[in-house]
User: Fold this.
Amino acid sequence: MEIGPIWRAMLRNKAGFVLIALQIAVTLTIMVNAFGIMQERAARIARDSGMDQENTFAIVSVLYKDYELEDRRALIRDDLELIRNVPGVFAVTPTNSYPLRQGGWSMGLQLEPGMATTDSVGSAIYFGDTSGVDAFGVELIDGKNFSEEQIIWRDPDNNTWPAQALITEALGKEMWPDETGSYVGKTMYINDNDPIQVIGVMDTLQAPWPGWNGVERSMLVPWIFGNDFSRYVIRTEPGMRDQLMPEIEAMLAASNRDRIIRDIATMEETHRLAYTDNAALIKILGFTVTLLTIITALGIVGLASFNVSRRTRQIGIRRALGATKPAIVRYFMIENGIVSTIGLVIGAAMAIGLNMLMVEAFALEPLDWYLIPAGMIALWLVGQAAVAGPARRASSISPAIATRSG
Amino acid sequence: MLRYYLKLGFLSIRANPALSGLMIAAIAIGIGACMSIVTVRHVMADNPIEHKNDVLFHVQLDNWNPNDPYEEPNEPPEQVTYLDSTALLAAGRAHRQVVSFKSDRVVQPDGDDVLPFQQEVRATSADFFAMFDVPFKFGSGWDSSADRGEERVAVLSSTMNEQLFGGVDSTGETLMMNDEPFRIVGVLDEWHPVPTFYDLNNNPFVGPEEIYAPFSTAVSGQWGSSGNNSCWKSPDEDGYEGYLASECIWIQMWVELRNASEKEAYAQFLDDYVMEQKELGRFPRELNNRLSTPEEWMVNREVVVEMVGVLLALSILFLIVCLLNTIGLLLAKVMRRTNDISLRRALGASKSALFKQYIVEAGLIGVAGGIAGIGMTWLGLRGIENVFVDYEFIQHLVRMDWSMIGLAVALAIVSALAAALYPTWRACSVSPATTLRIQ
Assistant:
């Protein structure tokens, strides 16, 4: 149909169209890569930490007066007792850290005793007592929880690790990739030579570091530290958190004045803080892509308007010779369609190229293939929408113009 | 003539407000996007101790696992052990030497109405202040004799002095930390190196510590490090003493070497030291000592976050789109004036006169875009601040200095001129006769 003549007309005045095509190409390149990054980050944020996110918070007590070991332990016991007896508290455990806190302890695990090598598997370590499973809100999918006798106080003069642990399924999979049955009963070695037996498997409990590639690997060990520093993870009955948080803080502060209470944080806040940079990146990129699309659309409008005003006489003549209004609109739409298609094909190649560069240079994930056709369709439609205004104006040029000499 | 061209350019911009506005906005937005990211990167990569970059060296020794390097491919550990740091400090072979770590302490202010609070304290040797050019408002640091004793002295930052003593000269006063009294010997003047080059672990953008105390006092008080602690094998003995005697790394070490020969001598000394330790059964890996300048060290620790690199790449592409946009619009504008141009050419205007006229007009648009671009950069930085509202350190990042403003304007003008070249060339090559014929 009309594509042939339109194409030949475009060739006579290439510069403007080449520029728009390039602009569309670069826009697609940025858009697709930005969407790829946004998508990957959004998926990271949406991961399950394993905890009862809405009803859990943590609090820290730091002793600053010199206490004997026995007195330090007694204080922790008293604290746990006090917290446990607050109506509305579902479970409390003393621990060292919790998922997404961005600080914690990790250790290398091996299948054989001996000095750590490159083969050892890194895992986050959480301490807890028998309430650990309930306080962290994990589900045991295999094996059983610690028994009361298995919980031990860490002896400051003896670093031997407890003999049992609960591990996440992801950790089990990494340690014994070929195992199809149960991980329960298996032994691994920590701290070179200390054996640990797996007594239960947890569904999900993320490590404290959201950016770590082993974030799904963690284990719970039945240890309590009797240090100056102790952290409690507290899970409340549904909806009670905001009421209990200040109550428990005040209660602990009042119960002993030789310590300070600090670092009180809900799991929701922890989650938000852990992913601030990801969330910010999504916003920045989203804003950038929007702005960019607007600029490109305005560029298309500008060029089309210019073409319309330049061709006023020519359009008038076509109208006088019998071209209908839709035919004039169609002319501009097809013209834009051709430019967009060329730009988008170049852009698709550039997008893939840039993605390959960025995968190389910044260790990003490769793009999902469907983002490219999706981006192409979206930008093609934006182009058509942008050109619609000037095209309509062109179609309303009066045929009488043809009769004027210009 | 320039004034006349400026006037013409101004008139031409005014004659087409929508088109000109779009061009200026496109340049401004492109510059804004680019410069926001460049500014963040500039501040993150800033070297606060640039003036001593060639005399300060971060010390690394490789005491790691014989089977497994600290970091691939063969990076020595980023910190040193207590054993090595104290041995090197005692040897005193560099012009100045600093060993340090940070530790959480509880500060107990006077009076019952102020609650005790936790504070990160830097435990360091006496040379810290002189070596890193730390300015004092009152008093001074401790002298190196305190590095060997257990003297309980402390230096406060001006902020901490403001908070605890209302900003008056507090030297001689007592600071209670964890129930132990420290005599204040000095108060710092404003000092906010970002990033904290001397310890890039954890978050180097929060700024320096507010309290400083002698390293040896801290160790005798059994302070633990609140920074990174890494061990490739567990200590042979338990407890704090066992930790001090272990292969665990937790101390940052810096030396000042005034010239190449001092540096060479010190590197030789380190090699000799490690060889000597090998005799004692330590340092199972090959000799792999390293002295890095602050700048090299910051590059090594990748202070500039990777994502900033991605954003920078995208923002440069963004600027390119904006420029393509401007080129297209300028071209449209020029082509619309073909009639004027051929008339002027026919009346005798030379190509170079036309070139000057249109380049001046494009330059005007560039300047306007640059000025608007500074505003856009400011908005962009506020935006970044806003989405990172939970990150206190970002507030330090987001600032513009004159060099950045200058760069923004220069980038805008260069961009606008680059964008103007092709349309201007097209304008100049309009032949005098063609359009006249139609008239």
In short: Residues 325-362 of chain A form the longest helix (38 residues). Chain A has a mean pLDDT of 90.
